[in-house]
Amino acid sequence: MAATDPAKDHYRVTYGEEVYVSDMDGEKVMMSIHTGKYYNLGFTGGRIWELAESSPSLGDIVTVLMNEYEVDEEQCRQQVHTFVAELEREGLLRLLRELD
Fold first, then answer.
1. For the chain, which terminus, N or C, has the lower number of CB atoms within 10 Å?
2. What DSSP string describes 36-98?
3. Cα–Cα dist 35/6, whole Å
């Protein structure tokens, strides 16, 4: 696994394009209004989506997930950064760099 840039922990996560979101047995399923694509975020991905509602930092998301699941901090950070980057590529989430 590639090393994660801890500086990105300060980036804020916000919703991107407009989507329809549904909860199906605890998993988040969504459809992009712009592309018509469907996505199943699963349980943990759905939790990240819920957390993004308050525009948290990536570090905040990692902290919440570490408190909710038994997971190593670096492994959690790597997976959160990768997942959010994938949703950003799809236009579903945006990362905003915090200015010091």
1. C
2. --EEEEHHHHHHHHHHHTT--BHHHHHHHHHHHS---HHHHHHHHHHHHHHHHHTTSEEEEPP
3. 32
